[in-house]
Design brief:
alpha+beta; globular
């Protein structure tokens, strides 16, 4: 069963654009193994994210 999760979070510290790019790259690499795809948008330390994939994989990712 496919699951889609949307959420908003705030960075605990100021991140440079390079750090955000590295975070996105690492997330893509890690999520491939679990068949998860998504979108990450950042503005002024606020993140909006959508993740989608098998329900158990999305639940496990969100718990982390």
């Amino acid at each position: 069963m496919l699951k889609r999760l949307k959420y908003i979070s705030r960075s605990s510290s100021v991140m440079s654009s390079e750090e955000i790019s590295a975070l996105a790259k690492t997330s893509v690499e890690n999520n491939k193994a679990s068949d998860i795809t998504g979108v990450l948008v950042e503005a002024s330390g606020i993140f909006f994210q959508v993740i989608e994939g098998p329900a158990d994989a999305v639940d496990a990712l969100y718990k982390r």
